[in-house]
């Protein structure tokens, strides 16, 4: 699977044991065990694909309003990685 510059689970294995996802806009948050994510999705799965799946029910994603976008991100990663 081509990475196309995306962060994969391989990039965080050994660096994080828990991956936090939060949205400051709607207040959603959760934590996920990295080893379980790797077992389910594979070590080379892109985080952006995984977060698309877990935020699929976000009303902001369905509205596709550029002024009120989904703000889901992984704060433990360097920088602001929005999905």
What does this structure look like?
This protein is of the alpha+beta class and 83 residues long. It has one domain (9-73). 30% of the residues lie in helices and 16% in strands. A hairpin with a 5-residue loop joins strand 1 and strand 2. It is globular and about 35 Å long.
List the defining traits of the structure above.
alpha+beta, globular, about 80 residues
Topology of helices and strands:
Blueprint: H1 9-12, E1 18-23, E2 29-33, H2 34-41, H3 47-54, H4 59-63, E3 72-73
Antiparallel strand pairs: 1-2, 1-3
| Total domain units | 1
**Order of strands in the sheet with most strands:** 2-1-3
Tell me the span between the first and last alpha carbons.
19 Å
- Averaged pLDDT: 83
Residue stretches low in confidence (pLDDT < 50, at least 5 long) are none
Envelope shape: globular
Q: What can be said about the biggest beta sheet?
A: 3 strands, antiparallel
Report helical residue fraction: 25-40%
Count the DSSP helices.
4
Decide which structural class fits the backbone: alpha+beta
Summarize the model shown.
With 83 residues, this protein is of the alpha+beta class. The protein is 30% helix and 16% strand.
